[in-house]
Specification:
mainly alpha, 10 helices, elongated
């Protein structure tokens, strides 16, 4: 059995590499674990006198797990590719179902599973995916991926169900009342119970 060689420098480098691969800024990571950016800078630099509790929170937020600090797989592009294919084919019915699968799988994993934005032409879906990813990050208390953090609010209200059939005003009001703030601030209107089963 090979001994685990772990130094503060090595750990800091691993944390930095993981954070960057997930598209998180130092500030986003700091905010997600309740500390300052200065702490993240010192942790990534390998400073020896940093808080163990905050270090463990940072490890968890970035998907490290287990007592030997095994590296969890970096989020795959499974959902990114699925949205690209589905929306390029104009299959909005399946795209709505895929939103629920993305949300449920992300909640089970403890973080949003789309580290990069899908390459799709539908700006409403891009905004909606950014809003859902922000909501997932809030629910799992993990940093918002950079692409979702940069999403701007839609000029028009986004009700994705309208891609399939008209949505009446009474239903729109119900959806608006039950939409989480992370989505509403981007003018995307989806009830969280329509997304995830957890």
């Amino acid at each position: 059995m090979q001994a685990l060689e772990l130094s503060t420098f090595t750990l800091g480098r691993e944390l930095r590499d993981r954070r960057e691969s997930l598209g998180y800024s130092q500030q986003a990571l700091a905010e997600s674990i309740g500390t300052s950016r200065k702490f993240i800078v010192e942790l990534e630099a390998g400073k020896e006198h940093v808080s163990l509790a905050l270090t463990l929170r940072a490890l968890a937020a970035l998907g490290f797990e287990g007592p030997a600090l095994r590296t969890a797989a970096v989020p795959t592009t499974r959902f990114q590719k699925a949205f690209e294919t589905t929306l390029s084919e104009g299959d909005y019915e399946f795209a709505l179902r895929l939103l629920g699968e993305y949300a449920t799988a992300s909640l089970e994993a403890g973080r949003a599973l789309m580290a990069t934005a899908p390459k799709i032409r539908d700006k409403e879906y891009t905004t909606a995916l950014g809003a859902i990813t922000r909501w997932l990050s809030h629910k799992t208390q993990t940093p918002i991926p950079g692409w979702a953090h940069r999403i701007k609010p839609s000029a028009n209200p986004v009700f994705l169900a309208e891609k399939l059939h008209p949505v009446g005003n009474r239903m729109k009001e119900l959806i608006r009342r039950e939409t989480p703030p992370e989505m509403a601030e981007l003018n995307v209107w989806i009830r969280d119970r329509d997304l995830a089963t957890l």
